[in-house]
Design goal:
By secondary structure, this protein is of the alpha/beta class. It folds into 3 domains: about 180 residues, Nucleotidyltransferase, domain 5 (2-Layer Sandwich), CATH 3.30.420.10; about 70 residues, 3-Layer(aba) Sandwich (Rossmann fold); about 210 residues, Sandwich (Lipoxygenase-1). Helices cover about 20% and strands about 20% of the residues. The protein contains 15 helices and 28 strands. The strands form 5 sheets. It has an 8-stranded antiparallel β-sheet with strand order 11-12-18-28-27-24-20-21. A hairpin with a 7-residue loop joins strand 25 and strand 26. It is globular and about 80 Å long.
Length: about 650
């Protein structure tokens, strides 16, 4: 039985009964708070899918409308439109007490939150649903998950792309079809709590400092460009003027004190401020305001960080383990995969993160369950299949998934329409998903099937569309083609996971250290100040890091993507974590990896994006540590307050 491409009836599961507010925005750019909403459309539905309201308007943003060639909204068209302040009450009434729905919902939600902040209010939304995240769980047989592709799959006619009113109409059809498919699979909706926030503020970018930090201010020494400066307490010259003059001189102005701070400016060194206490603990020198202003007049030149490369050229891999995939629409011929295992990695905390070497083929694997490169390339019996493993102990499940991957399959962590085969280990018969698996007529096997798999005909079964993404074992490396588009590494885990998992990213230099605390991207600071690295939360069990590799400064050699568990739980409680690598929002996966060897560990490095010549590579890592996120951050040079 194949999943229907669309559902004529609204779902009947009570968990799916919500009042919905479907939203689409067209914007002047991609940075919420800095850029503005130009066009907004909202469609409201009741719990049975009946339309209850509709609203759409152009908006006068009071700024340059940005890429007119994309959205077609010229200054002349927007000149007579209302401002957001004029429509905010009506928009708030439509959103209130409803689940916000959008395709790539964090984008629309953040833009609305900042627009409400501009008018001294907050977006009245407590939960949201991303149809992109929902369809990643559903796994429909589509080449990608873009809005137009899903519209065709669910039988919705798209009339005008990048038109908010038409896009929200299309979204309503996609929501109906997606909910029907999710109900067939018995999926929990990836509803994300987002209680009304009052802390959104208009975007005020921190001026990036173009110079490396030369370290502490020496006694009687000069200020040097790149020094990190913090100011605390009252000043004679206004704080804004001091910061502006300091930035103009090439200094890096900070709002907090850390071990990397060069100097703290204060007129009252005996004050009990937090900055002064931290400066005393770290041994950071203090300057009074007159002395600082005098030194500011003759700041010494610093060492420039360098700029981002222009359009890097993809490298031809040189490893002997290089295995180029067959050219397909989803796997460009120029892309190649380098597969190799890595040496054993201890679970205890390392003295410092080691810079990984290029992989070497046929190195002993990390565990008996992890296939070597020679094993992976020897037989691909299950190539293109997606295998879900149920039941068994943690180690038994790890071994079964490793065998499936060695045979060319990818290992799924949730039941989806892309799953082609299910392996049931002891105890798996009681899994809550077995009823759905039986109803969907999925192929079910025991553990012995993975030793000598036989392939039944695939016609008419769920998961018939082959998975064309490269399947990476731990330590495997792929080249990332130069596409001019940001790359995204998404991590997902079981929907039934009881503990919270946080995905983070570290942008590190050649010494495997962050140049500054702002190079640590996490839930509390989800975007690098220059916008090159961003964290997105698309659902309770999925988070993603997006990196604009071409815009990264040359001093950034690597982006380390990790996951950390909040509380006392370990990765044995979480189980497998699947990472998916894509280029562009909703694009077809370029590569997948399932990382599940961790047991007692509470943090795990999932993947690394790193420079190789003039290009970039991605490595699937799966290296776990018993310590928490704070210790991992300190290893990479982040100053973490106790």
């Amino acid at each position: 039985m194949a999943l229907l491409s669309s559902s004529p009836k609204w779902p009947t599961l009570p968990d799916y009964f919500h009042d919905w507010a479907l939203v689409d925005v067209e914007t002047s750019g991609l940075r919420p708070g800095r850029d503005r909403v130009l066009s907004l459309a909202i469609l409201t539905l009741d719990a049975q899918g009946n339309q209850t309201g509709e609203f759409s308007t152009l908006l006068n943003p009071g700024c340059d409308p940005g890429p007119v060639h994309v959205h077609g909204l010229t200054p002349d068209r927007l000149a007579g439109a209302p401002t957001f302040e004029e429509i905010a009450p009506q928009v708030g009434a439509l959103l209130s007490s409803r689940v916000l729905v959008a395709h790539n919902a964090q984008f629309d939600y953040d833009f609305l939150a900042h627009e409400f902040a501009h008018v001294r209010s907050w977006v009245p939304v407590s939960r949201r649903l991303c149809t992109l995240a929902l369809n990643r769980l559903v796994g429909p047989a589509t080449p990608d998950l873009k809005l137009g592709t899903l519209a065709e799959h669910y039988g919705v006619r798209q009339l005008k792309a990048h038109d908010a009113q038409d896009d929200v109409r299309v979204l309503s059809g996609i929501l109906r079809g997606s909910l029907g498919a999710a109900e067939q699979l018995g999926l929990s909706l990836p509803l994300l709590d987002c209680p009304p926030r009052q802390d959104y503020k208009p975007y005020v970018p921190k001026t990036p400092c173009a110079y490396r930090n030369p370290g502490r201010l020496e006694s009687d020494g000069p200020l040097v460009q790149g020094m990190k400066v913090a100011i605390t307490g009252d000043t004679q010259v206004s704080r804004e003027e001091m910061v502006a003059r300091s930035v103009a001189a090439g200094l890096n102005m900070m709002t907090s004190v850390s071990g990397q701070t060069s100097v703290v400016v204060t007129n009252d060194p005996s004050a009990a401020s937090g900055k002064l206490r931290r400066a005393a603990d770290e041994g950071v020198p203090l300057l009074d305001e007159p002395t600082y202003l005098r030194l500011l007049e003759s700041v010494r030149p610093g060492q420039a960080k360098g700029t981002a490369r222009q359009r890097p050229v993809a490298e031809t891999p040189v490893s002997a383990a290089t295995v180029p995939p067959a050219p397909t629409p989803d796997a460009p011929a120029q892309r190649s995969a380098t597969l190799a295992a890595t040496p054993s990695v201890p679970a205890q905390r390392p003295a410092a993160p080691a810079a990984p070497a290029e992989p070497t083929p046929n190195v002993p694997a990390q565990s008996p369950a992890t296939p070597t490169a020679s094993t992976v390339t020897a037989t691909r019996t299950l190539s293109g299949r997606r295998v879900l493993v149920l039941g068994g102990t943690h180690d038994e499940a790890v071994e079964a998934r490793a065998r499936a991957i060695a045979l060319g399959a990818s290992a799924a962590v949730n039941l989806s329409a892309s799953v082609s085969d299910v392996v049931v280990l002891p105890g798996g018969e009681a899994d809550r998903r077995m009823g759905r698996i039986t109803a969907l007529a999925l192929r079910v096997h025991d553990a012995d099937w993975l030793r000598a798999p036989t392939l039944a005909p695939t016609q008419g079964a769920v998961g018939d569309r082959p998975d064309t993404a490269d399947v990476l074992v731990r330590g495997a490396v792929i080249d990332l083609p130069d596409t001019g588009t940001a790359w995204t590494v998404a991590a997902a885990w079981r929907q039934q996971t009881a503990c919270d998992v946080d995905v983070v990213a570290f942008a590190v230099d050649a010494h495997e250290q962050v140049p500054g605390d702002e190079d640590f991207v996490f839930y509390g600071a989800p975007e690098h100040p220059d916008g090159t690295v961003r964290l997105a939360t698309d659902g309770p069990t999925e988070q993603a890091v997006t990196a604009d590799l071409e815009r990264l400064p040359l001093e950034i050699h690597r982006i380390v993507i990790a996951a950390a568990i909040d509380g006392a739980a370990t990765f044995a409680d979480v189980g497998a974590v699947e990472i998916t690598v894509t280029c562009g929002i909703g694009a077809a996966p370029t590569a997948r990896a399932t990382l599940d060897a961790a047991t007692t560990e509470r943090t795990m490095i999932l993947a690394e994006l790193y420079r190789r010549g003039d290009g970039w590579r991605l490595r699937a890592v799966g290296q776990g540590y018993d310590h928490g996120l704070a210790d991992l951050a300190r290893d990479y040079g982040v100053d973490v307050a106790e």
